Amino acid sequence: MRRAQQYVLVNGRSVLGNNFYNNNLHLAAAAASMYSSSTTNNNNGGWSRSRWFPPSSPSSGSVLAGAVSFSAVAASSEIYAKEPPPINLLPKDVVLYQYEACPFCNKVKAFLDYYHIPYKVVEVNPISKKEIKWSDYKKVPILSADGQNFVDSSDIINKLNHKIHPVGSAPKDDAEENKWRGWVDNHLVHILSPNIYRNPSEALESFDYITSHGNFSFTERITAKYAGAVAMYFVSKKLKKKYNINDERASLYEAAETWVDALNGREFLGGSKPNLADLAVFGVLRPIRYLRSGKDMVEHTRIGEWYTRMETAVGESSRIKASE
Ligand SMILES: N[C@@H](CCC(=O)N[C@@H](CS)C(=O)NCC(=O)O)C(=O)O
């Protein structure tokens, strides 16, 4: 088990000090805490059709091109089909307490989606946190399943992974997989905030996403969007220093290239199917993929093909919509 490591990615308390909690910035900090990340690593241990991001809008190609690409997608989705666990091993009554844009929560969702485990989502209000009042643990994700509560994204995934694999067929502890899962928690997540809040327009784009998907009242939403964008723009500059990031885009591209190198020609780190490291990298990148930074990353690195394979492999979300 790796050493528990605490770090503050965008937590206003440590980065900006007490003044940060004045007035609207309190709200912004709370919104921003969706990307705050105190990581405790522990690697040992009717369904909706919703997506968090709209897929990039299809270009107006010809009907023929459309038909060809449709059959290509159909063929590839068979190749990278999901892996539904045996029905008797499916965890029941799964509820994920989350922030929509939180990278750790998105790691868990990538796992649930890939294994076709239906789950409800409770969007936590980052300011009041009233939805998790019952819990002593005050971060997200928190997952309840089969009447038990689990905390910490890696731990949640480990426990679920054990649950869904029949005795004797549990995947072996894989050093390479563990190494890259650790890389996600200890390296990749640090690079995200400096990128998505890189300049005022990107900070606004990110907060537009965060506040439109998060659990905010109308006034909170407006305040959090603008105050949050301003605050996080400055916070992201501090984070760059803290994590020795000179050029945030260069670091993002480097991380993407490092990951592609790790694949070493394989379709997935797990070979012909994604493993938990593939799901972790995909999970934390999913909230940024269609933001400016994610688009740049795909344009300037070789990660795009793997990412598209992952989108196909993970497929539709198994999230249960509130109305269903
Ligand atoms: N090690 C934890 C980190 C969880 C975490 O730091 N979550 C952030 C949201 S991304 C959080 O809840 N921060 C505290 C807050 O919002 O007050 C995990 O992997 O689940």
UniProtKB/TrEMBL annotation:
It comes from the Eukaryota. InterPro entries: GLR_AS, Glutathione-S-Trfase_C-like, Glutathione-S-Trfase_C_sf, Glutathione_S-Trfase, Glutathione_S-Trfase_N, GST_C, PGES2, PGES2_C. It holds the Pfam family GST_N_3. PROSITE patterns: GLUTAREDOXIN_1 (PS00195), GLUTAREDOXIN_2 (PS51354), GST_CTER (PS50405). Its EC number is 5.3.99.3. One of its GO terms (cellular component) is endomembrane system. It catalyses: prostaglandin H2 = prostaglandin E2; prostaglandin H2 = (12S)-hydroxy-(5Z,8E,10E)-heptadecatrienoate + malonaldehyde. Residues 170-324 form the GST C-terminal domain. Pathway: Lipid metabolism; prostaglandin biosynthesis. It is found in: Endomembrane system. Its main location: membrane. It is an enzyme of class 5 (isomerase). GO terms for biological process: prostaglandin biosynthetic process. Belongs to the GST superfamily. This is Prostaglandin E synthase 2. It comes from Coptis chinensis. The lineage of its organism: Eukaryota, Viridiplantae, Streptophyta, Embryophyta, Tracheophyta.
